[in-house]
UniProtKB/TrEMBL annotation:
Gene: ptsP
Subunit structure, as described in the record: Homodimer. The dihydroxyacetone kinase complex is composed of a homodimer of DhaM, a homodimer of DhaK and the subunit DhaL.
Major subcellular site: cytoplasm
UniProt keywords, alphabetically: Cytoplasm, Kinase, Magnesium, Metal-binding, Phosphotransferase system, Sugar transport, Transferase, Transport
Family listed: Belongs to the PEP-utilizing enzyme family.
Coiled-coil annotated residue ranges, if any: none
Cellular compartment(s): Cytoplasm
Region Disordered, annotated ranges: 1-15
Purpose of the protein: General (non sugar-specific) component of the phosphoenolpyruvate-dependent sugar phosphotransferase system (sugar PTS). This major carbohydrate active-transport system catalyzes the phosphorylation of incoming sugar substrates concomitantly with their translocation across the cell membrane. The phosphoryl group from phosphoenolpyruvate (PEP) is transferred to the phosphoryl carrier protein HPr by enzyme I. Phospho-HPr then transfers it to the PTS EIIA domain. Component of the dihydroxyacetone kinase complex, which is responsible for the phosphoenolpyruvate (PEP)-dependent phosphorylation of dihydroxyacetone. DhaM serves as the phosphoryl donor. Is phosphorylated by phosphoenolpyruvate in an EI- and HPr-dependent reaction, and a phosphorelay system on histidine residues finally leads to phosphoryl transfer to DhaL and dihydroxyacetone.
GO molecular function, one term: phosphoenolpyruvate-protein phosphotransferase activity
Protein name: Phosphocarrier protein HPr
Keyword Kinase part of the UniProt annotation: yes
Species whose genome carries this gene: Geitlerinema calcuttense NRMC-F 0142
Length: 325
C-alpha cells in the first residue's frame, strides 16, 4: 500500500478524479466560528442559531442579533455563513419562551412550526439576517419543514421584513438565498416540489433518521434502529439528491452521518455536493475524499441501497474501499 501525500488544508476538496465537493463547518457559537479559519472549511454550512438564544432570560432584539451574526460572519468571511433559523422545541427548550409541555415533543411544537406561530419572532430574526447579508455572504436555512405552505408563509414574512427595512432606509441583500432542512420524511416526499421554492437543501440526518425509523434519537433502547446508515435513510438521501439536481439546486448533508468516514464514499456516490461537519473532522475527511474515485463511490452507493441493515452497509463499505477508512 502506497502512502498518499498529504493534501494541504488550503487545497479545494476534490475526489481523486477531480470531482469537487465542499466541506463546511457546523457551529453553535462565536467561539466555534473563530476556529473555522485555517481549519480547511469553506465557510459555515450550519450555524445552529438557537444556541445564541440560550444562556439568556429574554429574546435577543433585532439589534442584538445583528451584532452577533456580524461577529460570526466577520470571523468566517470571505467564506459564506449559512444561518439556520431558530430551531427550538423537541429536545431544545428555551425556558423564557414558555413552550407548552407535550406528550411527544419531537412530533410537536418545534422549528418552523414555532416560528410561524410567532411571526414577530421570525420577522425579527429575518430582519437581522437581511441586514447582515448586506455586508457578508449569508444564507438562511429553514428547520423542520414538512409542507410547501410553510415555505410560502416564510416567504411572505420575508417580504414584510424587506419592506420594513426598505421603508426605514436600512440596507439589505435583495436576493437572500433560502435553504430548506430536509429532516422530516414529508420533506423528502415533497423534495421535487420543495426544490422549486428553495435555493438549496440541507439534509439533517440526525432528525431524518429518528423520523424515518420512528426511533427517538436520544433513546438508548432503540439506538440500534436509529442508525443513519440504514438503507431506508440512504434511499431518502438518494431521492432528495435526485430531485434537487433535477431542479438544479445543490444538496448539503449537515447531520452527524457525514462525520463518519464510511459514509463519505456513499454520500459522494449519491451525488451530495456539500458536507457540513464539526471542524475537528474536516482535515481527515479532506484527505479521505482525495483518495476516493467517483465511479467506485457510485458503485458503492448503488450496492448499499439494497443491503439489509446499517451494520451491513458499514461492513460493505469497509470491505470494498481499497484504502484505510
Ligand atoms: C439534524 O437534524 O441532522 C441537524 C443537523 O440538526 P440538529 O442536530 O440541530 O437537529
Ligand atoms: Mg435537526
Amino acid at each position: 500500500r502506497t502512502t498518499q501525500p498529504a493534501v494541504a488544508l488550503s487545497t479545494p476538496t476534490a475526489t481523486r478524479d477531480g470531482h469537487r465537493v465542499k466541506l463546511m463547518a457546523n457551529i453553535n457559537t462565536l467561539a466555534d466560528a473563530q476556529a473555522v479559519k485555517g481549519s480547511g472549511a469553506e465557510g459555515v454550512g450550519l450555524l445552529r442559531s438557537e444556541f445564541l438564544f440560550l444562556d439568556r432570560t429574554t429574546l435577543p432584539t433585532e439589534a442584538e442579533q445583528v451584532t452577533i451574526y456580524q461577529e460570526i460572519a466577520a470571523a468566517v468571511a470571505p467564506e459564506p455563513l449559512f444561518i439556520r433559523l431558530l430551531d427550538i422545541g423537541g429536545d431544545k427548550p428555551l425556558p423564557y419562551l414558555k413552550l407548552p409541555s407535550e406528550a411527544n415533543p419531537f412530533l410537536g411544537y418545534r422549528g418552523i412550526r414555532v416560528l410561524l406561530d410567532r411571526p414577530e419572532l421570525l420577522k425579527t430574526q429575518l430582519k437581522a439576517i437581511l441586514r447582515v447579508s448586506h455586508q457578508y455572504a449569508i444564507k438562511a436555512i429553514l428547520p423542520m419543514v414538512s409542507a410547501i405552505a410553510e415555505v410560502q408563509a416564510v416567504q411572505e414574512i420575508l417580504s414584510q421584513a424587506q419592506l420594513e427595512l426598505q421603508q426605514a432606509n436600512v440596507g439589505f441583500h435583495r436576493q437572500l438565498e433560502i435553504g430548506i432542512m430536509i429532516e422530516v420524511p414529508a420533506a423528502v416526499n415533497l423534495s421535487d416540489r420543495l426544490a422549486g421554492v428553495a435555493n438549496f437543501f440541507s439534509i439533517g440526518t440526525n432528525d431524518l433518521t429518528q423520523y424515518v425509523m420512528a426511533s427517538d434519537r436520544n433513546n438508548a433502547q432503540v439506538a440500534h434502529l436509529a442508525d443513519a446508515f440504514a438503507p431506508a435513510i440512504l434511499r431518502n438521501i438518494q431521492q432528495t439528491v435526485t430531485n434537487a439536481h433535477r431542479a438544479g439546486i445543490p444538496v448539503c448533508v449537515c447531520g452527524e452521518l457525514a462525520a463518519y468516514r464510511e459514509a463519505i464514499p456513499i454520500l459522494i456516490g449519491l451525488g451530495v455536493d456539500e458536507f457540513s461537519l464539526p471542524v475537528s473532522v474536516i482535515p481527515q475527511l479532506k484527505q479521505l475524499i482525495a483518495q476516493i474515485d467517483g465511479d467506485e463511490a457510485g458503485a458503492i452507493a448503488s450496492a448499499v441501497l439494497n443491503l439489509d441493515s446499517g451494520a451491513a452497509v458499514r461492513e460493505y463499505v469497509a470491505s470494498r474501499f481499497s484504502l484505510p477508512l
